[in-house]
Amino acid sequence: MTKRIVVTGIGATSAIGGTAPENWQKLLAGASGARTLEHDWVAQYELPVTFAAEAIVRPETVLDRPVAKRLDKSSQFAMVAAMEAWADAGSPEIAPDRLGVDFATGIGGVWTLLDAWDTLREKGPRRVMPMTVPMLMPNAASGNLSLHFNAQAFARTVASACASSVESIASAYEHLQLGLADVVIAGGTESAIHPITVAAFASMQALSRRNDSPETASRPFSVDRDGFVMGEGAAVLILETEEHANARGAKIYAVLEGTAVTADAYHITANHPTGAGAARAVRHALEQAGRTPDEVTHINAHATSTPVGDPAEYAALLDVFGDRVHDIPVSATKASTGHLLGGTGAIESVFTVLALRDRVAPPTINLVDQDPAIPLKASSSTQALPEGPNVAICNSFGFGGHNAVATFASYEG
Predict the structure, then answer these.
(1) Nearest to 342 by CA among 282, 402, 299, 255
(2) What is the per-residue pLDDT across 199-211, written as a single tens digit (0 to 9) for each?
(3) What whole-number distance in Å separates Cα of residue 107 and Cα of residue 86?
(4) Can you tell me the distance from the alpha carbon of 364 to that of 361, in angstroms, rounded to the nearest whole number?
């Protein structure tokens, strides 16, 4: 029998806020987290892109110093978001072997890895920290969350580029349906605003070059979009079976009704131009939820503001929804937060859940001149969602041809 999986806690930290409520408030207000980078290495390496969306609250100011010192920034962000989400869920009392972790990152501890390389090159092997490998490994976040919350059911890691954290949510959904846990800490994290990643993404023409106007650089669906803005941070959803949530009297934000993961098998970085793989993911996520396309009232789009990515996503949505897609309120929230890479689907899932709760689609800022070839119902202002039950999808697509979609619904009891 299919179980109802519900969201009982949320946490988020990004360039526009240090908590989930602050992120939501700033998102609805149309804030941008993109700022000029104030690091010596920007000029030192003559980087062609001089801005990004760095997290506004540094995690080392939130965590105890001994904890922070043993974690890469990516794991620090994960811990901050998870602690918020766990408290928001009411700090559930649960047997350790019924609590699991499904967590994601696109890159992992890149700062730890490259700092260690600098240390080795400049000071020799004896100065490389013993904790280097445990800090840089991609599963560091899930492992440390398991340790912190005593989660003994499992601690699994997904690394599927920018689709990673919706895939981790999909894994959590499956694990809960299989009865492997009653509660799962799910989400994703990233802290990869580093000279090498900025240079590499810029080299492949993926980043916006609007150095003179960082706050308006990310402009999904706009006719003059020229690339994404790197972001950082983490987000977490506490997922559990409805039966378990009700038994402990938990508040419930929304229902996670279905998920899906597909692969394009087309190109290592480019989306399939027809959006075929993405369309299959949307269809499968709706089918698993027992929903039809006609029931969807909101879409949180992947929408990275790249010249080729946005049209491919539109093609996928048009394939699934037909002309009705032009009447569904769409939000492209990377315009505000920047692109959190492996953490992006998690924070956008948090936004999707809050959109259902408050019956409002967040704005897509910087949408001044919409591309006529992408006539989605996006707006630089908030859009009201219908009264009564609402259903929303959250899309995430990543390098490697990964497509991941989650279907959420408002909780009606």
Answers:
(1) 402
(2) 999 999 999 999 9
(3) 25
(4) 9
1 pLDDT higher than 90:
no
Confidence at residue 413, expressed as pLDDT on a 0 to 100 scale:
81
Give residues with Cβ within 8 angstroms of 101, minimum separation 6: 142, 145, 146, 149, 151, 154, 155, 156, 184, 185, 186
Out of 244, 302, 394, 402, pick the active-site residue. Answer: 302
- Measured CA to CA, the distance from residue 18 to residue 55 in angstroms comes to 8
Spatial contact of 310 and 374, defined as CB atoms under 8 Å apart: yes
pLDDT, position 170: 98
* Residue 48: CB atoms within 10 Å: 12
- Please tell me the distance from the alpha carbon of residue 401 to that of residue 189, in angstroms, as a whole number: 20
Per-residue pLDDT tens digits for 281-313: 999 999 999 999 999 999 999 999 999 999 999
Amino acid letter, residue 158: V
Task: Enter the DSSP assignment of 125.
Answer: G
The pair of three-digit structure tokens given for residue 17, joined into one six-digit string: 């806020």
Please state the φ and ψ torsions of residue 255, each to the nearest 5 degrees. -110, 130
The answer to whether residue 175 is catalytic is no
Residue type, 258: G
- CB 337, CB 14: distance < 8 Å: yes
d(CA 88, CA 313): 33
- What the block records as the tokens of 68 is 């922070």
Tell me the per-residue pLDDT of 328-358, one tens digit each, with 9 for 90 and over.
999 999 999 999 999 999 999 999 999 999 9
Q: Report how far residue 167's alpha carbon sits from residue 160's, in angstroms, rounded to the nearest whole number.
A: 8
Candidates 162, 244, 272, 298; catalytic one: 162
- Out of 244, 272, 339, 402, pick the active-site residue: 339
Condensed to tens digits (0 to 9), the pLDDT of residues 109-167 reads 999 999 999 999 999 999 999 999 999 999 999 999 999 999 999 999 999 999 999 99
- The C-alpha atoms of residue 203 and residue 237 are separated, in whole angstroms, by 34
Q: Is 302 a catalytic residue?
A: yes
Helices (H), 137-207: 140-149, 164-177, 195-203
